[in-house]
Amino acid sequence: MSRNLHLNIKHLTRVEGHGNIVVNVTDGRLERCELEIVEPPRFFEALLKGRHFQEAAIITSRICGICSLGHQITSLKATEAALGLEISEQTRLLRQLLIDGATIQSHILHAYFLAAPDFFGKPNAFKLLTTHKDVVLRALRLKRLANDIGDIVSGRAVHPITPVPGGFTRLPTETELNALLKKLIETGRPDMQATVDTFSTVLDDIPDFTRETEYISLKNADTYAFYDGDLFSSDTGSATVDQYRDWTREFVVPHSTSKHCRHTRDSFMVGALARWNNNHEQMLPAAREAAQTLGLKSSCHNPYMNTVAQVVESDHCLEEAIAIIDLLLTRGLKPEKPNQQPTRYGRGIGATEVPRGLLYHDYTYNRQGNIVAANCVIPTGQNLANIDADMKKRVPEILDQPRETIQKELEMLVRAYDPCISCSVHAIQVTFTGGAPPA
Amino acid sequence: MRSRPKVAFFDFTGCEGCQLNKLNLEDHLLDILEQVDLVEFREAMDETAESYDIAFIEGSLSTPSCIERIHDIRRRTRILVALGACAATGGINALKNIHPIDDVRETVYGSEKYRFPTLPALPVSAVVQVDYEINGCPMSLPEFLNVFKALLMNKTPDIPDAAVCVECKLRENECLYDRGMVCLGPITRGGCEAICPSFGQFCTGCRGLVSDPNRQAMLDILTDHGLSLNDAKKRLLLFNSHSLNPSSGLTH
Hints:
The structure holds two protein chains of two kinds. By secondary structure, chain A is an alpha+beta fold. Chain A has one domain: Cytochrome-c3 Hydrogenase, chain B, CATH 1.10.645.10. Chain A is 44% helix and 17% strand. Chain A has 14 helices and 15 strands. In chain A, a hairpin with an 8-residue loop joins strand 9 and strand 10. Chain A starts with a strand and ends in an 8-residue tail after the last strand. The relative contact order of chain A is 0.20. Chain B is α/β, with parallel strands linked by helices. Chain B has two domains: 147 residues, Rossmann fold (3-Layer(aba) Sandwich), CATH 3.40.50; 82 residues, no CATH class. Chain B contains twelve helices and five strands. Classes of the chains: A alpha+beta, B alpha/beta. At the A-B interface, helix 1, helix 4, helix 6 and strand 15 of A face helix 1, helix 2, helix 5 and helix 10 of B.
């Protein structure tokens, strides 16, 4: 087919941050097809220069408002590894609970407010109010509930307050946890079930597209990995977290202020679908049932299904949150002060599964407890090469369709990855030399 | 009947956390949406508009194109509100202003630095006239609601200007200095109900400084409580690099 097609979708809507989709087809030949990243850089690593270990997580949580908890926890893990700060089992459980809340919050926001308007044929979620008010209200309720976890355990869901190196500055009370548990069971469970039902009605609108790729996530022998684990690739198996630079080999491309990444192939995928593909056997039973209802197969190579995997993971996180609170209440909360007495000064790496995939923070501290080198590798940056590769396969497959259909399908594809562009451009490797900044 | 005011939200250089926070208003959000005509909000909707009654600006200005866009928005809007620390004070972005800008670009992007034009991160008021500022990182939702409601009723919003310490005392918190911590509450603008000290964490100064801050007294307190003078200055700059160090923000 000898078609000409030139798409330039500027400042793609309903994604976090600023990106453009550019497609050029001349005489049926695909010349250019890519997601341009045009977000202004913020130079976060420069901001960290000379900063004390008590300030690192305060600064890095500001990389992103949607992922602030993920950045904070990962930052704390890197700092604790670098300074040899041990944390208690209780701290670990509370952090896992926070990750469950943040994951539900982020996935629900994406599935309902950013992705769902495409399925319902609306330009935005507010327009759904007239036709599907119950759906919008349910989405807001679930988001509120997920934020309640953040508010109660960390003081605030956006830019959390209480998680600090070595523990928490304040613990939730048992009364607060009991009230939260009640809400998760009484309104969370029915709302989550209704969410699964709603998304099961839009499966026909999810494009039928397959491109097998390498799937990378954490893997943990005990649980569906979010808080920690080893690196795992669907191609090469396991590795320790300190191998992360080889697993995220970064390269500069001209069309993006965020670097691209590769491991063994030209691209790989991280995020809900990658986690599902690698770890679905460890998912809690309720969520596996949801996966069945939503037609999510145990090995799924359709990136559009990432949104569905997010819904399934939300269900898992809800059940995990209920189980953790139950356990904390059974054991009783012990008053603990954060452990902030360093036993060493050096380099530490934190790796966490945050809503969009695998996040790494890597800090080196001097003997004053100030940062001398920092590197953060962000899930969206790791996915960018894979998004381009998907678009390059998809465009020729649908080139006989009307221009509007092609545009919509490509927008949906990028949205399915739930890219967080603010994050992706704000963390690029840097090593500092010299001492403290001028004050 | 008067038509509903046209409201728009714009994001510049920032984390979009304040935008996200608005979705956490839930029921209030729907009530407000009934009172206004929401005409532009890229993160949540596809549509755009030509002019606005109220434009909320989130994020700092940090590239030449940011400067162009903000002038354009100022021309189209009747009222302009800076929303959140990045827009109101430069926030955490402005930390980069204390380093020479070329060093920052070079350390981060190396030889590729010329591909990424950047300016010092500026609050909106450094470039165009700002009618109101809502502080905080993230902004406080009750404060946002108060300002929004006041504007819809053509009233002048009340912007808090007492120190965080005042609100902390009203909540009867134990002073963090008495617990061996250092805190920026004494010179930081309140309005947050002292949320961080109430949760056992020191005030970071995210809401900017009170209108008449005693910097020297603050430095004395910090050094009396164990920080070196250099660490005390660094702590003050965490969220206030622009206001405390304006020359570095404007002359590079």
